Amino acid sequence: MSDDTTQNEVKQLGKVGVLFGGRSAEREISIMSGTGVLNALKSKGVDAHAFDPAERSFGELAAEKFDRVFIALHGRFGEDGSLQGALEQLGIPYTGSGVMASSIAMDKIFTKKIWLSHGLITPKYAVLTPETELRLVPDDLGLPLIVKPPHEGSTIGITKVNGYSEMNDAYTLAAQFDDEVLAEEFITGRELTVTILGTGAQARALPIIEIVAPQGNYDYQNKYFTNDTKYLCPAPLDIALTAEIQDMAVEAYRALNCEGWARVDVLLRASDSKPFLIEINTSPGMTGHSLVPMAARATGMSYEDLCLEILKTARLKMSKGSKQ
């Protein structure tokens, strides 16, 4: 591709807003992601501008007259369909999944129901409410088990429960973030993640990453602020198992009607190498420690080229003949 062709393509992208920050519990990570994306797009010659929905109104967003936006928000009010709905109303094409897919993917309980209806494998679970007899949950799911808020990411509010006496504290922590709480069977094994790029039949999986965290604890600190976690990319898996997990991740992505890009987290059970779907992130991290750029690099795609490819997929989803 010639430089002239590249410059013409960049010019056609028009004025671009990079949305980051926001009001969710993941604001700090979103600022890191968005700053990286903004700088990458600018380095490619894109007319890119920062926009923080926590500090500026939707009226100001409309007044900016962006031709498209790159969503680098994580969590509530950015990844959950609410922002996507506002952008549809404003007629501003955006990256990532549409209103419904974003909303479903943000809800780990609803996501599990959809996956199970498609015959996909995910750990056994229970929905906890204030009326739930917490002491009975381990009898059903076994120990250890995981308790987490179903609408948060970045391991926020999550607890590994090793004994009956820990259930109350785990529930109390997760309930600070959600009215309902998710309890999930604990899968002992290898932690994997699969980046998906594209939409529909064109959706493709990038190389699988295996995450090897200190003492198996891939928490908020080890995700973003230390260099102690090791990442193996491509993951050391045989060819057949690699293909099986990639196909499963793409199927999980399509089952929710996701678009543009996402990251699917998988656990590979140690006892029998059986993969289990854990969750899907429709606006994954793009920080220096993030996994999507790492998977892209394994294919020879730079961070800057990745950001540009994602930006080019920005569109409205809810009407035919939508502005591109």
Q: How is this structure best described in words?
A:
Helix 2 packs across helix 12. The strands form 3 sheets. Strands 8, 9, 10, 11, 12 and 13 form a 6-stranded antiparallel beta sheet that branches. The protein is α+β, with helices and mostly antiparallel strands and 324 residues long. The two termini are 22 Å apart. It folds into 3 domains: 3-95, 3-Layer(aba) Sandwich (Rossmann fold), CATH 3.40.50; 105-122 and 188-306, ATP-grasp fold, B domain (D-amino Acid Aminotransferase, Chain A, domain 1, 2-Layer Sandwich); 125-185, 2-Layer Sandwich (Dna Ligase, domain 1), CATH 3.30.1490.20. Helices cover 35% and strands 20% of the residues.
Summed up, what is this model?
The chain is an alpha+beta fold. Helices cover 35% and strands 20% of the residues.
For the CA atoms, what is the radius of gyration?
20 Å
Strand proportion, as a percent range, falls in 15-25%
Distance between the termini: 22 Å
Helical stretch tally: 12
Q: What is the ordering of alpha helices and beta strands? A: HEHEHEHHHEHEEHEEEEHEHEEHH
Q: What would you call the shape?
A: globular
Structural class: alpha+beta
